[in-house]
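Sequence design from tokenized structure. All designs in this work follow the same two-part layout: the structure record, then the generated sequence. An example of the structure record is given first.
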């Protein structure tokens, strides 16, 4: 039980559901069958494409499947290399292995924590087929430089905006920069459908190829049950699409809530020496999916210890992602060994950084409590 607060435990993340979401899902489960089976998916996809500012959107069961389809539709396959930032969730890189290609782990920028354009360029080789920059925790990398390098070398860009719905870079929405952009609507995200994802693109060829691949290799125009390739079954249900549509219609207030939660933290932690919070680069809008702190080494506390001590006060936190190249999942990969030596910034940030509770149900009172606990652990109270 949180001392002084009448609640069991402060969760690290979670959604904001209103009557609107309940009404839309109820309507979907009641009516979205027979001739109406696709109405919510179509409305969600159309509204989503408009919001991001792209031509096409395809609703999918997850962001992982959106990355998988992106790679397939862009022709990435066996023998190819795909560059990813070392600091991200493994969902960014796992689909690279699904298609028989190999991940190459690039370092990140010290301020944005996102892919470093320089590191990306240094790693380009004859096998490099695609790059997957990630909008980490709602922040954006230097997309101008990344896209310029990719274009100069003829490399496809898949923008992983799983954590960054509504974020902006120079007035354009995150997810709109690459050959494809991908989003996650997992229950921890700013916009939720429980599980779910979206692939967006301006490329008509990629759009049609993705539609074909996600429906067992058949074209909508072909005769029934006529498969011309062995492919995949990646569809979002209409109940999820209804939930997503309702959330999208409330996106401004969802993002506004994320800003407010971040500002409460910034007011309490922003001026404390040795604590670095999420960065918002000039000309960008960070939507602060996860409020994140990097603690100076001087405190002598690695993230696992801080999380353990905070948990004793009934507060859930998450460790900053471990460098992918450090994970047992990649231990047999030569590329991972090289990245461990090479990616100095990723290995400097990760051990001392954690995500603080920033679910949609956070209140100023709870932020106060979390900050007091953190400050007392760090001895700066
Ligand atoms: C950066 C990043 N990419 C991809 C994903 C995968 O999303 P999903 O769980 O919807 O497959 C996530 C999910 O948390 C993520 O954080």
């Amino acid at each position: 039980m949180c001392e002084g607060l009448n609640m069991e435990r402060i969760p690290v993340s979670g959604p904001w559901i209103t009557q609107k979401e309940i009404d839309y899902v109820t309507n979907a489960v009641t009516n979205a069958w027979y001739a109406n089976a696709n109405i919510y998916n179509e409305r969600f996809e159309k509204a989503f494409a408009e919001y991001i500012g792209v031509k096409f959107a395809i609703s999918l069961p997850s962001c992982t499947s959106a990355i998988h389809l992106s790679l397939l539709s862009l022709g990435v396959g066996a023998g190819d290399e795909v560059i990813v930032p070392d600091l991200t969730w493994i969902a960014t890189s796992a689909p690279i292995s699904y298609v028989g290609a190999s991940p190459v782990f690039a370092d990140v920028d010290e301020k944005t924590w996102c892919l470093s354009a320089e590191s990306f360029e240094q790693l380009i080789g004859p096998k490099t087929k695609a790059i997957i920059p990630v909008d980490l925790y709602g922040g954006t990398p230097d997309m101008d430089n990344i896209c310029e390098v990719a274009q100069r070398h003829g490399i496809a860009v898949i923008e992983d905006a799983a954590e960054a719905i509504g974020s902006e870079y120079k007035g354009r929405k995150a997810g709109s920069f690459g050959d494809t952009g991908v989003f996650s609507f997992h229950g921890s995200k700013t916009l939720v459908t429980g599980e779910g994802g979206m692939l967006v693109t301006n490329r008509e060829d990629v759009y049609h190829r993705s539609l074909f691949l996600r429906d067992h290799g058949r074209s909508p125009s072909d005769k029934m049950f006529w498969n011309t390739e062995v492919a995949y079954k990646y569809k979002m249900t209409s109940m999820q699409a209804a939930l997503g549509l309702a959330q999208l219609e409330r996106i401004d207030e969802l993002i506004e809530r994320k800003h407010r939660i971040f500002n409460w933290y910034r007011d309490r932690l922003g001026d404390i020496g040795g604590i670095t919070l999420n960065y918002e680069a000039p000309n960008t809008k960070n939507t602060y999916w996860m409020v994140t702190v990097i603690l100076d080494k001087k405190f002598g506390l690695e993230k696992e210890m801080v999380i353990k001590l905070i948990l004793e006060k009934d507060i859930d936190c998450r460790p900053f992602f471990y460098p992918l190249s450090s994970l047992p999942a990649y231990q047999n990969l030569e590329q991972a060994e090289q990245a461990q030596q090479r990616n100095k910034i990723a290995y400097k940030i990760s051990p001392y950084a954690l995500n603080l509770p920033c679910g949609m149900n956070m209140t100023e009172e709870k932020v106060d409590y979390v900050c007091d606990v953190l400050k007392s652990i760090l001895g700066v109270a």
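The pocket of pyridoxal-5'-phosphate is lined by residues 62-64, 88-89, 91-92, 134, 160, 162-163, 184, 186, 197 (CB under 6 Å). We note this feature because it recurs in several other targets discussed in the main text.
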